[in-house]
Amino acid sequence: MKVPTGPSGPYRLLARALTAGVLISASACSFPGVMRPADAPAIVPPATSATPSLTDAQASAALITQGELGGRWSATQGGATWRDGLLKTRTDAPDCQRLLDGLYAEDLLGEPTGARAVVGLDESGNAAQLRYQVAAYAAPSEVDAKLAWLRTLPSKCAQFTSTDVRGGRLNVTVVPAVLPGVGDAREGLRLTMSGASPADAASGAAPMLTLDFAAVRVGDRAVSLTNGGLGGAAQDSTQQAVQVGTQRLQDVLAGRPPTTAPAIPTTAPTAPSSAPAAPTSAPTAPSTVPAAPTSAPRAPRTAPRVPRTAPVAPRTVRPTEPRTARPTEPRTVRPTEPRTVRPTEPLTESPADTADDDTTTADTADTVQEG
């Protein structure tokens, strides 16, 4: 019996074809210059992570500060009540309604796609509020499209009427606002709202709102702000915020220290506001250490004072000769009469006077005897 040692017939032809294919593949591996699919370089997809155009730290550093707008500005105390009563109104004009909605929602430039930072400030002079935002958007063309639409509103919404939630009618006026020539593109508007009746507006019965809006693009970043209130909107504050804020954003993006512009004076300055004040806590010199003289040294207080009058020469006592008592003649005391106290001469009796006295005495004696 014969034992088959391999395929026969069609199977033998198939086996030969397979064997030939294996030999050809093996020989191809040994030939230089022939690349197999496993040796081809792998295709690496491009990196999808890109450096953001604005970081949160940069957005915060690009915000303006209250000191750059003047001493009348301070940190905000919260949203004003007029926002709900005046900006949340309805009108039939689509573009005008879009303007009111954008001012109320504070998104006239659209929703930012990157980092953003916001600061709010209050003004003590006319109770105005300023909201300032720095944000990144998808592309510069997106911001430019919004700025182009804002540029048409002074003609589309020059004057229109809106209705508040209570049914009151308000007259609205939109005019362009002048901005400094900063950034890559910019646009500004000024909106005023008052009572529908001129008599109400004149009497003050209806509120009067003045609100500025400004936006400046720097690449795919933009700064935007609203400034105003029932007491009005200071145009110089709007322009100062745009000027300082745009320059600050450009400095932050370039890696430079932010530039601080001088604040707008609120009143006519009487003295330089930057003059340093005298230190109140400066240490005083010890009492035992003499202070450095600032002028010519003064005479000590213990120095003898100059006499006001010329000194008097001392009086010289001259020795005197002893006084010799001179003998004096005795003074004769003359008798005086008791009544007249006049000196009288001593009486000298004469013989005749004596005889008369005797006769008188004898007569007196005789008279006594007779009696």
Give a nutshell description of this structure.
The chain is of the alpha+beta class and 371 residues long. It contains eight helices and eight strands, in the order ααβααββαβββαββαα. Mean pLDDT is 72; it is low at 22-49, 262-297 and 343-371.
Q: How would you summarize the topology of this molecule?
A:
Layout: H1 10-30, H2 56-61, E1 73-75, H3 82-87, H4 94-105, E2 116-123, E3 129-136, H5 140-156, E4 159-163, E5 169-176, E6 185-195, H6 198-203, E7 209-218, E8 221-229, H7 235-254, H8 351-370
Antiparallel strand pairs: 1-2, 2-3, 3-8, 4-5, 5-6, 6-7, 7-8
Low-confidence stretches: 22-49, 262-297, 343-371
Number of strands: 8
H/E element sequence: HHEHHEEHEEEHEEHH
| Radius of gyration over C-alpha positions, nearest whole angstrom | 63 Å
Main β-sheet, spatial strand arrangement: 1-2-3-8-7-6-5-4
Number of helices: 8
Helix and strand composition category: alpha+beta
What sort of overall outline do the alpha carbons produce when their principal axes are compared? globular
pLDDT averaged over residues: 72
Describe this structure in words.
- The protein has 8 helices and 8 strands.
- An 8-stranded antiparallel beta sheet has the order 1-2-3-8-7-6-5-4.
- It has helices at 10-30, 56-61, 82-87, 94-105, 140-156, 198-203, 235-254, 351-370; strands at 73-75, 116-123, 129-136, 159-163, 169-176, 185-195, 209-218, 221-229.
- Mean pLDDT is 72; it is low at 22-49, 262-297 and 343-371.
- The chain is 29% helix and 17% strand.
- Strand 5 and strand 6 (185-195) form a beta hairpin.
- With 371 residues, it is an alpha+beta fold.
- The chain is globular and about 55 Å long.
